[in-house]
Structures are given as structure tokens and as C-alpha cells.
Amino acid sequence: MILELDCGNSFIKWRVIAGDGAERIAGGVVDADSVLIDAVKGIAGLQLEHCRLVSVRNEDETERLVAALATELNVQAMVALPAQVLAGVRNGYEAFERLGLDRWVALVAGFRLAGRACVVIDLGTAVTSDFVAADGEHIGGFICPGLPLMRGQLRTHTRKIRYDDQSAERAHLSLQPGRNTVEAVERGCTLMMRGFVASQVEQAGRLWGDDFTLFLTGGDAGLVSDVVPAAQVVPDLVFVGLAIACPIV
């Protein structure tokens, strides 16, 4: 079994897959290292042989998690590292090590899957997009607030905006003008995300015409997928790239 981890600043997305990568055995999202350890320990018939992770945390936090995995689960984690070139993709950042590693492995995965020019849009806490040309040149990308950040800022800085997650979920059943605060906020933020995705498609069209593949990933991909029906929605794109960055031989 292989434990794979995508360690963000606030949450850890994890999954355990069979050794040949063909079957997902368990997985989830947690907000603390200790919760992760307990969740993995609770898997019936657990027989971990390998672990690999990608992290945007600072070095000390990542090292503490690696040490905990070794102590509690008896597995040594392979950690994805920055690179100028990986699997035929050339990192386009002026300082390649400054590109978020989750973005890096996801765009490498997109290029591997597409075999041609591609755009990778990750719709999570933040929304990121990255453009990779047909020759593997990463030509850069964009970062903007995702739905959780937009919602959080409005709740923090506007006293009368208060509602629960269930109300937010119901508001997404339509994109008609909101008739109460929760509908107005949730639908307004969703429309901003959808407009961002449309703008990325327009930019890719100016670069490559129709000769590119669009990938959508991240927790809110479902809210925008109908903007571009031809887009490929790949929820675990980061894990696809992690397997490329940290192959098990």
C-alpha cells in the first residue's frame, strides 16, 4: 500500500492506494497531522510499504510530519522537491523554487495526460491556473482567491454577513440573482470564479487556438465545469503528478 499526501497550509488531502496504483483503498481531508495518523491507523488490514507527499508548508512543519509518519506509521516519506525540469516540463518561474509544489506537480501531470498544450486550473482555497505549451514550456500562470477565501473575507469584514455551511450549499442550486444575503454572496463569488475560468480559456485560445486541453481540479471544480464542457475534471491531479515526481521503483 502507498500513502499519498497533499499538504496545504490549512488541510491535508490524503489517500491510500494499492501498491500497483490501481485501487484507492481509503482517503479524505484532515486539518491536523494527528488526525491524519489516526485516520490511516484505522484502515482495516493496513500494510503500508511506501509514502510520498507534496507540501506547501514551511520546511520545519514538513519535517515534523515526515518524522511523525516514520514514528507512528513506520514509513519513510518521499518528499516532492522543486525542479527546473520534470517529465519534459520546464518550470517557467524566474526562481523555479518559488513555484508552489502542488501547482508544479499538477501542471506536470496535466502535460503528461494531455500530450499537448494545456491549462491546469485548481479551484481550492485559492484558485490557480498554469499554462504549459506543446513543447513543455511552462509559460506562467495566475493566482486569485477561491470561494473559501472570498466568503471568509466577506464574513470577516462585513458584520451583517453571517450564515452556515448548509445555507451556503443550498445557495448553489441556482445562479439567479440572490434574494437574501447567503444567495447573493455565494452566487456572486461563484460567478467570479466562473468568469475567471472563462478568461483563462480565452487567453489559451489566443495562444493556441483550439489545440489545448483544459484540466479542472480542486474541491470547487464542479461549480465551474459547465463553463467549458470540454474540460477534463481530474479531482486527484496533484496525486497524478506526485507519482511522477516521486516514482516508486
From TrEMBL:
Pfam families: Pan_kinase
Reaction equations catalysed: (R)-pantothenate + ATP = (R)-4'-phosphopantothenate + ADP + H(+)
UniProt-listed GO biological process terms: coenzyme A biosynthetic process
GO molecular function, one term: metal ion binding
Keyword Nuclease: no
Active site: D102
Known cofactor(s): NH4(+); K(+)
Positions that bind ATP: D6, C7, G8, N9, S10, F11, I12, K13, T125
Recorded coiled-coil stretches: none
HAMAP family in alphabetical order: Pantothen_kinase_3
Role of this protein: Catalyzes the phosphorylation of pantothenate (Pan), the first step in CoA biosynthesis.
Name of protein: Type III pantothenate kinase
Naturally occurring in which organism (per UniProt): Pseudomonas eucalypticola
Gene designation per UniProt: coaX
